[in-house]
Amino acid sequence: MRKLVYYVASTLDGFIAAPDGSYDFLPLEPDVAAHLTAEWPQTFPTFTHAQFGIASPPAGRFDTLLMGRGTYEPALKAGITSPYAHLKQYVLSRSLPPSDDPRLEVVAGDPVAFVRDLKSRPGGDIWLCGGGQLAGQLLGEVDELVVKLNPVVVGSGIPLVDRGFAPHRFTLVEARPFETGVVVLRYTAVAR
């Protein structure tokens, strides 16, 4: 069965973006970029592949990407309707109209039912790209959590997971520290 992998950058205090959705305070440091382009090349937007020397299409475990409206909007504002054209893209949103881009589908239905259906289909793993509200709705479906933990505290913003109190346990399976202070942490969900 396919896995849902929440792969995201975070601050030490658990925020993935500023209150306005910006994330420029989480820079991609050169030592981390080298690791990510080698190990997670599919997580870079398609238009950045040449800049980072990523093969097209990049090899990897994902063939599908999920994101919320807030995660998708910066691309739309830049005129990019298909930011990850190398993957099948779904934007889960009740407020966006259907996409005119055939490489991206807007899904207005129940995110949990949608993910369960995706997991039952053949294919590669599914990348949950963001944001915090969508992650909160899908936390019970997350099989793996990969956090690029940045050495910064911001105090407020968009949380890693936005939901009511409901503990979900994960087991640390890998921790990769970098000289710049970033640590890439990989966890698997404890059996439910």
Topology:
Layout: E1 4-11, E2 15-17, H1 30-39, H2 49-52, E3 62-68, H3 69-77, E4 88-92, E5 104-107, H4 111-120, E6 125-130, H5 132-138, E7 144-150, E8 158-159, E9 170-177, E10 183-189
Parallel strand pairs: 1-6, 1-7, 3-4, 3-6, 4-5
Antiparallel strand pairs: 2-8, 7-10, 9-10
Give a verbal description of the structure.
- It comes from Micromonospora solifontis.
- Pfam families: RibD_C (PF01872).
- Residues 4-184 form the Bacterial bifunctional deaminase-reductase C-terminal domain.
- This is Dihydrofolate reductase.
- The chain is an alpha/beta fold and 192 residues long.
- The protein has one domain (9-123, 135-155): Dihydrofolate Reductase, subunit A, CATH 3.40.430.
- It has five helices and ten strands; from the N terminus they run E-E-H-H-E-H-E-E-H-E-H-E-E-E-E.
- The chain has an eight-stranded mixed beta sheet with strand order 5-4-3-6-1-7-10-9.
- Strand 3, helix 3 (69-77) and strand 4 form a beta-alpha-beta unit.
- The mean pLDDT is 95.
